[in-house]
Predict the 3D structure of the following.
Amino acid sequence: MYKQYSDLSNLLLHNERAKHFYDSLEVPIQVAITTQEKDICSMKQLRDAAVNAMHIGKE
């Protein structure tokens, strides 16, 4: 089970793995993810948002 945080900012502040993952993403993917900041509260949600943003960018 993934630990839940209040939002993306808290996740990145308190979860080093999530921060490293986020920092490794291309800037357009980061921007797309931050538009969903309130809905991303776990590492799984962050990964899912990144995958979705990558797919949307290819369409």
